[in-house]
Amino acid sequence: MAPLWSAIVPFKGSVAAKSRLHALYGVDGEDWARAFLSDILDVLETMPEIGKIVVVTSDAQVGSERPGIEVIADSGGGLNEAILLGARACSGKTIVIPADLATLDPTDLSSLLAEASTIPTGFVRDAAGEGTSLLFVHVAAELTPHFGSDSASTHLKSGAVEVHAPLTLRLDVDDAISLLAASGGLGVHAKRLLALAKNFPSNE
Length: 204
What we know:
Layout: E1 5-11, H1 29-46, E2 50-57, E3 70-73, H2 79-87, E4 94-96, H3 106-116, E5 121-125, E6 132-137, H4 151-157, E7 161-162, H5 176-182, H6 188-196
Parallel strand pairs: 1-2, 1-4, 2-3, 5-7
Antiparallel strand pairs: 4-6, 5-6
Helix pairs in contact: 1-6
């Protein structure tokens, strides 16, 4: 049996995490953020390829109802530092999954992990084209995240191999436009919020 993957999910856990979604369609940004995280964790917990899930967050409530998930306190040093904190709790094959990847699909992720098993370090470019949606390595200690401005180019220059993936693995939801684009592929928690959203195009 192939070694299992560890998944690191960094999560800010505050209204600031989804500031551009705050009060959008009458729903608080924090509620959107929590819904996206819950849907992502639901996916990861069902996948046989994932042996360990690590959430790095400053939110004490995260993980309270999920005993199988390891929660690490965020030091407040930013996204890349949070990812490195998570990496210290992992060994072997490790993938970083941002908490706003709201359309995460288990079948597509399974296919990506199969391809990633032959690539020592790689990344998936986000839907916008300049950022990074997924980052993976075969040795957790060698994880060198460069999330931020133009991170796709930075990861490419660092030696990571770009892996092409379907939109479900590339669409980070952080504003009204991306929420509309993702609406058809959201998980149950986000769909529940979407059904309550005021004036959302698909609800009219």
